[in-house]
Specification:
Length: 274
């Protein structure tokens, strides 16, 4: 197998020590650099030109991709990703380009020197330490919903206090991060808030009390799904339910308006059975 083939198998980038263990020689490594097949992003690393730029960045600066950066790479629900989030050993000088944040705390799961992306458990712990509670909960819910981990597995880790608090609230049944944000932001409410309730043949996002239904529309809520949901909303209203439907922009950027609508509905007793 050629150096290029080995690198492709390793995801486009690997430590030279890994390539040596695979049977390649120092001469082959130097030749691949000389003929332009690969390059050295940092001493001890070799990468193809087609390698993932984020992985090359991590290798170049001696860090691993973690927190919301790696969460997004794993397909987890992330509210915002405006800066690089990486992890590094304590004492290592890191000078990343652009907006970035370095996490220095000791990882839950030790990181191999050959690692460029953090373990999921470390990612979740970083998120819990770094992001607001509701955003962190959305990421944790997403990891459970995608079955990348589970509650018993996380519970046996020496989690930070903030992570432990999130573990007590997270659920695998949230369909989107918007539902996680909603659930977290109304946890103070002294009225039952039930997620994913079935009402007359359809599932609703939230049922507050007996009769107040909250439906949350994602960014792609269009077409036949929207028509079906509108029909179900009408059916619920005929049966005495009060339905409030809100979208991504309202939940993320105008939460105070959403909360006010809900509190005013509760003040009028619209959540109670009549």
């Amino acid at each position: 197998m050629s150096i290029e083939q080995s690198l492709q198998t390793e995801g486009g980038i690997a430590r030279t020590s890994r390539l040596l263990r695979l049977g390649h020689s120092q001469h082959q490594i130097r030749r691949s650099i000389a003929n332009g097949t690969a390059s050295r992003p940092r001493r001890g690393w070799l990468a193809l030109a087609s390698a993932d730029p984020e992985l090359v960045l991590a290798a170049r600066h001696g860090v691993v991709l973690s927190c919301i950066t790696q969460a997004a790479r794993l397909g987890l629900w992330v509210l915002k990703r405006e800066e690089w989030h990486v992890a590094a050993p304590r004492g290592r000088h890191v000078d990343l380009p652009g907006r970035s944040r370095v996490h220095w705390h000791t990882p839950l799961v030790p990181r191999s020197p050959e690692l460029l992306t953090d373990h999921l458990e470390n990612v979740l712990d970083c998120v819990a330490r770094c992001r607001p509670h509701d955003e962190s909960l959305a990421v944790w819910d997403s990891a459970l919903q995608r079955q990348l981990t589970d509650y018993p597995k996380l519970a046996t880790l020496p989690l930070s206090p903030r992570a432990r608090k999130i573990l007590l609230e997270c659920t695998p049944f949230a369909d989107s991060g918007l539902e996680s944000l909603f659930r977290s932001r109304l946890r103070w409410l002294r009225v039952p808030v039930r997620a994913q309730s079935w009402l007359h043949g359809h599932r609703v996002d939230f049922l507050i009390g007996d009769r107040l239904v909250i439906q949350i529309d994602g960014r792609d809520h269009v077409g036949r799904q929207r028509t079906s949901d509108n029909e179900h909303d009408a059916e619920l209203r005929l049966r005495g339910y009060h339905v409030i439907r809100v979208g991504y922009e309202q939940i993320v950027y105008r939460w105070h308006e959403v909360e006010t609508m809900i509190l005013e509905a509760i003040a009028r007793g619209l959540h109670l059975a009549r």
